[in-house]
Each structure stands twice: as structure tokens, then as C-alpha cells.
Amino acid sequence: MTDHARPIFRFAPSPNGLLHLGHARSALLNAAMARAQGGRLLLRIEDIDPSRCRPEFEAAIEEDLAWLGLDWERPVRRQSEHLDDHARALKRLAAMGLVYESFETRAEIRRAVETRPGWPRDPDGAPLFPFARDAMSAAERDRRRAAGEPFALRLDMARAVGRAGPLTWHETGQAAPVAADPLAWGDVVIARKEVPTSYHLAVVVDDALQGVTHVVRGEDLKAATSVHRLLQHLLKLPEPLYTHHALLLDAEGRKLSKSIGSRSLRALREVGLSPADVRCMAGVSLE
Ligand code: GLU
Q1: What is the pTM of this model?
Q2: Domains, the chain
């Protein structure tokens, strides 16, 4: 197979902590599927949030993945080095009239939601943005901008969906396309003043620029695919094939995460487990 025709997979962790078994499962599934399909495997470091990402975690990611027996192509793409690519995409969305500045603070948003019992939440459980695009007067916006107040750039979801029309994506193992429901997310933040991109924007731009054909990631990101398909459509980017795998749960049935102190791969290694033991615990064989 020429390099051009080979499927491209990627594992895309954020360096904001040590990898745990759930990450191992995603990385190993990407590697196993790439191997089975004669594909290529990329590693992308999703480090757009400078307040949470640290170089030592990035080094630990590479060390843990190599210890697990994985190999990936170099150079590794670090999202923070490609903010210009994201800014270009943002400009295109803005030129379509789909992006607006939102100066509302977290506290203002919280108060607005508190006064509206039953206010809808997005698939991650966060309340939808409770203000209309033009809720703040132009004069007030000018005043806050002039005062140097931070703002978020939000996607005008209703307008974006109106422009795109109905969208679907293709999920491995499902014969029928999955209907995307980006409206369920409301006016998502697409960039910030201080970080001129967002998870949603960076992931679709980078997947396209890296020629990713297969996105394999946890089920917790399945709902976000609706936003990704919308952005891909608006930006005329190709549509990858998606696989959202079941998450590993702890003994209490909670998804593994740094925030509940799930044991890191490093900790498993330090108590004497071998890479083969960890691959087995992650439920993916590389043979
Ligand atoms: N960086 C994201 C995370 O660590 C994953 C992004 C993706 O696979 O689309 O949760």
C-alpha cells in the first residue's frame, strides 16, 4: 500500500496529568486497529490549555506509551505550536457570521441559570449558554472590550446548524449513519481571548491537517462528535470514520479519571506490573 492510501489513526491525550488505564485502552486500540488495517499511528499532544498542561506530563506520556510497547510517527504534533492554523479556521467561521464575542462572566452565567429552573444542560451536564447572542448591548460590549475584559468567542449554534442542515457521521460497527445533534450543545465556546482556540476547533482542524482518517476514542467524547461534524462541514474538512469505545470503569462503576485518583500507568508499573499485564487489564492485545 502506498503511504498515501494508508489509513491514519491518532492518539490525542492532553498533558495535564499522568495516563491511566483508560488512556492505555484508547492508545492500544488505535495501535491495534492501525496494525490490522496497515495504517499509520500518530501521537498528538493536546496542550492548548496553558493553565493545566505541563511539559513533564508530555514527557511522561511518551515514556508510558513506549513502555506499553507502542510506536508512533515523529514529529509529534503539539497543538500549542499550531495556533495559527486554528486562528485561520476561526476567521473563516467568523466571516460566515457564525462567531460572536461573549463577555458574560462565569458568575453572570451561573446566576442566569439559577433563575431558570430546569434550564437545559449539554451532553456533558453543563448548562447551555443562557444568553442570546445580542443580549448584551453593543455599547456594553464596546465598554467591556475597551476595559480589556476577557471574552469567549462562541459559535452561534442555531445559525451554524441552519447553514449546515442535517448532518451524520459513520460509526464503526453501525450500519446506519448516526444523526448529529449539535444543537444539544448550545452556543459552545469556540475560542477564548487568551487561548485563541478550543478543544472542538483544534481537534477538527488538526485531524484534517494531519490527514486523520480514523478517530478512535472513548465513548465520553461521542456526543462531541456532533459539534465536530458541524465544524468539519462548515470548514469543508473531510469526515473521518469514528469509533467510540466503551470506557473502563472502576470498582464503583465510575469512569477512570485523574480527578478521582485512578491509578496511573506509572503507578501500575511501579508496583511491578509488566506491559503485557497492563495491556491485558486494558483489554487490548497487540499480537
Ligand atoms: N485530548 C482529548 C482528551 O484527552 C481527546 C481528544 C480526541 O480524541 O478527540 O480527552
Answers
A1: 0.95
A2: 1-81+248-287 (3.40.50.620), 83-208 (3.90.800.10)
